[in-house]
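Researcher: Here's the sequence for the chain we discussed earlier.
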Amino acid sequence: MLPSIELCIMSSVLKENGHTVELVDMRINDMQPEEIVEILSELSPDIVCVDDIPESHCSTKELLPIIRRSVSEKCLLCMRGEYVSLETELIMKRNKEVDFGLLYETDFVLLDLIAYLEGKKTIQSIPNIAYMDKNEVVINKIESVDLRLLPMPDRKLYDIGKYLARDSETIVKSSRGCPGKCLFCIKTKYEPFKTFSMERFCDEIEELQSYGFQSFFFSDDNFAFSMARLEEFKNELTRRNMKITWTSNLRIRDITEEKIKLMKALGAYRVFVGVETLNSQTSKVINKNLSKELIKEKIRIIKDNGLQFHASFILGNPNDTEEDLQETLDFVKEVQPDLVTFNLLQVYPGLDIYKNPDKYGIVMDDPYWFEKDTWTKQAVMGTVQLPPEVLQKWSQKMLYEYITSSFSCSND
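Model: Thanks. This is the structure I predict for it:
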């Protein structure tokens, strides 16, 4: 549960241009959809923007009609996020309460929509939006944002105290997108890969330190993508005499002895690595192209240099079998990651694997699985080799056996 940096930047853009922004943070406040009615009545907003992340689209689906009933007819109801960006026509037609889909990089879109309300812009001239016109979805041109033009995030948009009380570690990000093109990843298709300046990145960290945060999750899809980037980070920390504690994502292929040593020296305590599968043929199918031998060598580098590692696996990769899942479980018991995530297969809207399930042997009875919360409780899709009921069994087995093996090791 972490603040959205993107919403914070959008807020800064609006406030710098004289507009008023209010955030209703339903996650940290554990709010039910109906609780929004009174709040919207008091605020009487001109625009409402729902931040629709894939993990909570089912809640968005429930929330949209409630918002529509709670605001004036003139109020623009917008939705941003991966689903409406990557599967625009489908999402707009299945959520007709929405006036505008905000697509991809949405930093300036609300400012443009205010100009539209003020009669200063035509709707056709605004990039990165979609809307309905006579039952047809219109998608305007898509533009990429120059990160140098963006203001610092307005983190006070959130109730910082509640997040600090929950966890002394918070989120910060030095880039958008990822140089990888993993088959199952919705993030890499959502944003082009580009970086913020290291000066800005460290400015953000210093600001967060002033709020009381003691540790940082660098949420870049791949923070240490090059030694040059790490050296730039080192130089900026040295210039400021900054000491920080942090963790980050790191592609296995990018792990080197030199990088891991430097990361540890700069305050890293853990890395998150997406292993996903040990089957080298499957790894090619999902565009990771890793062998078991390479994975073991990269993990050795992490452990030998005293960093914790969080390993992630996908249960239900195309081409994997029950034998592969058993090999994965044996491997996890052998290498003993500090944290492990066994993710059930999720076929996200907008990806090729969603649009062409037969090509990858996907078994998915309900193509609108993401509109319900059933997927949070059980496997709702799988493959010909690993149907949902088999994945459900293995999900429980792997978690149980990992926990019991970890407990046994800790006692030893």
